[in-house]
DNA sequence: AATGCGTGGAT
DNA sequence: TATCCAAGCAT
């Protein structure tokens, strides 16, 4: 039995971490603070769920304004279930990973219509809902329902691979890490324990230059003892991002309105709004796809915008034309003033901005 | 079990 | 500028 599995160490880690959390917990809009919790305040499962979905692969800073907007506009799961998918996509625009928004709405519908408006309280029950995977199910079970679930996110992977010098590369190490986290998770305040680990990972046990001197569990940390903390976690090398080229077409009618189309519900930017584009492909000849224009027109290049997705870089040449006739085409014509309210992902805002500089400047919502 | 899926901030 | 990566999930 390694030191990682000794109950004494597990208890030391949990008690030191909770004591640190009581003093240093970040104040977050969706969080019940340790002080509030000690006064009997309980978490709202809806707000915990909403925040956890938004926080998947997304920074706290990016999530905050979106969470505030959603929680104000749709204060309960029933309100969200009553909303249209279109309005949810519009409100999610800019946050990325748009399948989360589609699944958020599906999940709200299931909870409202099949569970009487109450979230399941078990990991398995939560795991069965759209958009809820192993991490999110454990996080909601622990934070909202006080269950000793093993919560493992990227922060906690980093903390535990350092604590026990787990040198198996990620993602293979996930099962091993989950076992160690399960042993360390206390029955007492499991939700605060998970949140403490995430705060520790975000503020002290950072990917680069961790502040070990300030860490409440540095004496239990094997990597710290050997000075190798920055060598963990070990990760498999990433693949290079190919560059894809494409063309976007901003069609402006003589009354100033712009042609928008809804993208297919699956795949990249699924269900979101955009301008017509060519296919985006890797090509050596540098051709961006001018010949893919949706209809005849005096298409003039407005330059090339660049946008980096998770698995490729896109260089998009933006073409603009003023059309004096009314071409037959799918989609709808939108007044430029209403564009900020459309479900436009960032790359589409960039393309529109190439044709209409300043369109999406702050304050012009 | 690899791969597809956004965005913006930090370094 | 290039790279990393942030409270992952679905398939």
Describe the 3D structure:
Belongs to the Nth/MutY family. GO terms for molecular function: 4 iron, 4 sulfur cluster binding; 8-oxo-7,8-dihydroguanine DNA N-glycosylase activity; adenine/guanine mispair binding; metal ion binding; oxidized purine DNA binding; purine-specific mismatch base pair DNA N-glycosylase activity. It is an enzyme of class 3 (hydrolase). With 365 residues, the chain is α+β, with helices and mostly antiparallel strands. The chain folds into 2 domains: 3-231, Orthogonal Bundle (Endonuclease III, domain 1), CATH 1.10.340; 243-355, Nucleoside Triphosphate Pyrophosphohydrolase (Alpha-Beta Complex), CATH 3.90.79. 40% of the residues lie in helices and 11% in strands. It has 14 helices and 6 strands. The strands form 2 sheets. Strands 1-5-4 form a 3-stranded mixed beta sheet, with helices on one face. Strands 3-2-6 form a 3-stranded antiparallel beta sheet, with no helix packed on it. Strand 4 (300-308) and strand 5 form a beta hairpin. Helix 3 (45-55) runs antiparallel to helix 9, helix 9 (134-145) packs across helix 12 (190-203) and helix 10 crosses helix 11. The longest helix is centred in the N-terminal third of the chain and has 18 residues, at 7-24. The radius of gyration is 24 Å and the shape is globular. The N and C termini lie far apart (59 Å). The mean pLDDT is 95.
């Amino acid at each position: 039995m390694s030191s990682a599995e000794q109950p004494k160490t597990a208890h030391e880690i949990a008690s030191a971490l909770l004591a640190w959390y009581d003093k240093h917990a970040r104040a977050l809009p969706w969080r019940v603070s340790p002080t509030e919790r000690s006064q009997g305040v309980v978490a709202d499962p809806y707000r915990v769920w909403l925040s956890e979905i938004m926080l998947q692969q997304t920074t706290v800073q990016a999530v905050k304004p979106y969470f505030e907007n959603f929680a104000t506009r749709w204060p309960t799961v029933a309100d969200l279930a009553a909303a249209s998918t279109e309005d949810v996509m519009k409100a999610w625009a800019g946050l990325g990973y748009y399948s989360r928004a589609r699944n958020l709405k599906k999940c709200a519908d299931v909870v409202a219509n099949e569970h009487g408006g109450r979230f399941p309280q078990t990991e398995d029950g939560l795991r069965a809902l759209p958009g809820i995977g192993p991490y999110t199910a454990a996080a909601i079970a622990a934070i909202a329902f006080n269950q000793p679930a093993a919560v493992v996110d990227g922060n906690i992977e980093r903390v535990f691979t350092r604590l026990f010098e787990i040198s198996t590369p990620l993602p293979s190490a996930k099962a091993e890490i989950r076992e160690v986290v399960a042993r360390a998770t206390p029955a007492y305040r499991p939700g605060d324990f998970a949140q403490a680990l995430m705060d520790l990972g975000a503020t002290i046990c950072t990917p680069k230059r961790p502040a070990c001197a300030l860490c409440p569990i540095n004496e239990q940390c094997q990597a710290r003892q050997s000075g190798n903390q920055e060598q963990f976690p070990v990760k498999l090398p990433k693949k290079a991002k190919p560059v894809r080229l494409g063309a976007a077409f901003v069609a402006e009618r003589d009354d100033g309105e712009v042609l928008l189309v809804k993208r297919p519900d699956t795949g990249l930017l699924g269900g979101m709004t955009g301008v017509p584009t060519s296919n985006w492909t890797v090509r050596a000849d540098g051709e961006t796809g001018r010949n893919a224009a949706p209809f005849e027109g005096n298409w003039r290049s407005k330059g090339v915008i660049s946008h980096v997705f998770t698995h490729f870089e896109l260089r998009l040449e933006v073409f603009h034309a003023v059309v004096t006739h009314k071409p037959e085409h799918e989609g709808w014509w939108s007044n430029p003033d209403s564009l900020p309210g459309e479900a436009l992902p960032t790359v589409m805002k960039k393309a529109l901005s190439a044709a209409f500089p300043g369109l999406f400047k702050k304050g012009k919502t």
